[in-house]
Structure formats: structure tokens, C-alpha cells
Amino acid sequence: MPKKDPTAPSEQTPDKAAVEAAQAAEEVQKANVAQAEEVQAAEEAAQTEETAGENSAETASIADLAAEGESLKAQLAAEQESFLRLAAEYDTSRKRSVREKETLLSEAFAMAVSAFLPLLDNIERAVAFANSNPESVREGVQLMEKQMRDIVEKINLEEINPVNAPFDPALHEAVMHVEDDSVGENTVVEVFQKGWRLGDKIIRHAMVKVAN
């Protein structure tokens, strides 16, 4: 029987080769599983980082909104304070204006009354001399008329006496109409009561008779 060469490669039995193949396949599977786990871990880390970034951005957005809200509240408070200050100033100005108007009205009324007081004095004197001296009464009445016209002129009252003037409803009040061919159409032929005006304000319309 020939001797076996010790340097020749050893032959493996089929069972041993299958075991080694199975072991190799198991090692490959483990490597694949490890690689898959690494990939999954990397993906989870990336997702965690992305979520953290989104949370950070959301937190920053909420902080910005809160800061903007505080700014708007401060601005609203300032506007409200300004409004209240202006309202107070307006109220003060309005009250001052009312007081000034009341003062002017009171002064104007006092001036008008004081202008008529001398006329009242002369009326009282005329009444006192009515029975004893009729001529003095006549002179007193004439004096009172002159005083009255002076007062009217002093306070800038203008007489409305439109005889032979065209009828003007803004100045005259027609209380009678008459047909008269000697005068023009719509002409004032008689004044029953004179009118008066102060500047542009009509104090009293003239009561007139109008022709045609």
C-alpha cells in the first residue's frame, strides 16, 4: 500500500465543507444585519436632528411672536395714553371756549342794557312831568327818540324802511296787497312797521303793503 504524502493538501469531507459554508453564510448575514442596523441608526439620528431643528425653529417662531405681541401691547398702550391726553386737552379747550362765549355774551348784553338806561331815565322824567308841563313831555319824547337813534347807531343796528323799493321776502313781510297802476309791479307802497337788521342777521322783518 503506497504511503500518503504529508505535504499534499488534506481532503475535506462533504459534511465539514457544508458546515464551513453555513458558518460563512452566517457571518455574511451578521455583517448585513450590522450594516442595516448602522444605516437605521444613521437615519434615526438624522431624523432626530431634523426634528430637533424643526422644534428649535418652532420655538424661535413662538419667541418672535411673543416679542411682537409685547411690542404691539406697548404700542397700543402708548396710543391709548396719547388719545386720553388729546381727549383731556380737547375737553379743557372746549370748556374754555364755552366760558369765553358766555363771558362775551354777558358783556354784550350788559353793554346793550347800559345803552338803554339813559332812555329809561328820560321816560321816567317825561312821565313825572306829563300832567304839569305837556310841552316838556313833547320835548322829552323828542329827546328820547334822538337817544334811541343814537343807541341804534352805536350798536350798528340798521333800519329797514323799504318804501317804493322792490319787495324782498328776505327783508320784508307782506301783510297787504293792492292794485296800483301808478307804481311798478311787486313794489312796496307802504310800511306798517319798520324792520331792523344787525349785519347779515335780520332782527325783524319790515311789515309792508305791496302793489300789483
Description of the structure:
- The chain is rod-shaped.
- The protein has a domain at 159-212: Nucleotide Exchange Factor Grpe, Chain A, domain 2 (Roll), CATH 2.30.22.
- The chain has two helices and six strands, in the order ααββββββ.
- By secondary structure, the protein is an alpha+beta fold.
- The strands form two sheets. A three-stranded antiparallel sheet has the order 1-4-5.
What name does CATH use for the topology of the domain at 159-212? Answer: Nucleotide Exchange Factor Grpe, Chain A, domain 2
Q: Which CATH class of the domain at 159-212 applies here?
A: Mainly Beta
Spell out the CATH superfamily of the domain at 159-212: Head domain of nucleotide exchange factor GrpE
Number of DSSP-assigned strands? 6
Gyration radius, rounded: 59 Å
The pLDDT mean sits at: 82
Please state the second-level CATH architecture of the domain at 159-212: Roll
Structural classification: alpha+beta
Relative strand content: 15-25%
Helices and strands, in order, run as: HHEEEEEE
Poorly predicted ranges: 1-12
From the spread of the alpha carbons, the general shape counts as rod-shaped
Total DSSP helices: 2
- How widely separated are the two ends? 176 Å
Helix content: 55-70%
Q: How would a crystallographer describe the biggest sheet?
A: 3 strands, antiparallel
| Biggest sheet: strand arrangement | 1-4-5
